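Appendix B. One record, verbatim.
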Amino acid sequence: MSTTPRNLPRFLPTLTEVVHPSGVVKKAVPATPDLEETVWFVMQRVDMMIERRVAEEVDAMLRTVVTEQTQTLRLRLREELEGVVRQAVSEAIASRADLHKSK
């Protein structure tokens, strides 16, 4: 029984180096984390707490500033409108008095 060759790809990858499992060096995993890993982990937690605290403080400061600015704006607008209303009423009274004098 003869076997006919299958159509093989023109280029076949070849193994150029044999690696034996005994030659692979395994890195020993330390039983306890080293100093740098511990510092990094703790600083990650600290950074999260700092970000949350800064966000809370900024939010509180913004609310305070906006409230103060709104109150200042309200007072300025009231003073300005009071002057405009006073002027308009004075002109209306003067105009009315002039109408009564001319009759």
